[in-house]
Design brief:
Elements lengths: L3 H9 L2 H10 L1 H13 L6 H6 L1 H10 L9 H10 L7 H4 L3 H9 L2 H4 L11 H19 L1 H12 L6 H6 L1 H11 L10 H11 L8 H18 L7 H5 L20
Helix pairs in contact: 1-11, 3-5, 3-10, 5-10, 10-11, 11-13, 11-15, 13-15
Length: 255
């Protein structure tokens, strides 16, 4: 059986080719074709949200597939935009919402929003990458974590940013063997423990990043069962009806 790192390397050795192969899969190609043909015709937030197929495609592209049902919630994200630092998206403790609102910035661009590359090919590229990671996770959750870490870790600027993202934090905790009880400690002490072991700036170095991912996959293969419920890290357990969504209004730690 291939190790997690072997599977990860198989996908990332030539990531452009891997993504092209994923994009050419019939289901992915069909959905992308429909999205690219339809999105330029959408000129308002209402039209965007009402077109379930296009809206769901966009939500999956930003890793928000589990929130696609919460249309009133997402309408508020889009309506308030990102220009105001106190807007709904900017107050959420999740950069996925900010990125979504930035791409579909009807607040700033109005009817011209969907004529921008940010809502067309860039979204399609994100959709393919997200699909690749989800499909990889169906076979090996450690591979999905590794792929996600490779994509997102270089964008983090602080230990708080790592801790604010459940999937990134899972990788870090696995690499350094941080116990679950660590979550009960003061947030600043947790950050200090991370900074003592990891130079955050090194995450922007591809060679150092790959070494860290190799350490993670080795520990993953030793410590994690194949059925570990890691997918919950990506769903993040948001439920608007349960009131959990309101907890998203907490300020970001940073990063």
């Amino acid at each position: 059986m291939a190790t997690t790192y072997d599977s990860y390397r198989l996908l990332t050795r030539n990531i452009d080719r891997t993504l092209k192969l994923k994009a050419s899969e019939p289901t992915v190609a069909l959905e992308t074709k429909h999205y690219l043909e339809t999105i330029p015709k959408i000129k308002s937030i209402d039209d965007f949200i009402k077109n379930t197929r296009v809206f769901n495609y966009a939500m999956k592209a930003f890793g928000l597939e589990e929130m696609a049902y919460a249309k009133a919630y997402m309408r508020k994200v889009l309506t308030e935009g990102i220009t105001d630092s106190k807007s709904f998206a900017n107050r959420l403790n999740d950069d996925r919402f900010t990125a979504f609102a930035k791409a579909f910035d009807f607040d700033s661009y109005g009817a011209l929003t969907t004529s921008r590359s940010a809502t067309k090919q860039e979204v399609a590229d994100k959709y393919v990458r997200q699909t690749l990671e989800v499909d990889a996770g169906a076979e090996n959750e450690g591979v999905r974590l590794a792929l996600y870490f490779k994509r997102e870790a270089p964008n983090v600027s602080s230990a708080y940013g790592l801790m604010a993202d459940a999937a990134l934090w899972k990788v870090v905790k696995t690499v350094y063997g941080f116990p679950a009880e660590m979550g009960n400690a003061d947030i600043d002490k947790q950050a200090a423990a991370v900074k003592k072991r990891l130079d955050i700036a090194s995450l922007k170095d591809p060679v150092k990043l790959d070494r860290l991912i190799q350490r993670f996959t080795a520990r993953w293969d030793m410590d994690q069962a194949a059925t570990s419920p890691t997918l919950a890290l990506f769903n993040r357990g948001y439920s608007v009806g349960s009131g959990v969504a309101m907890s998203l209004l907490s300020l970001k730690y940073g990063g």
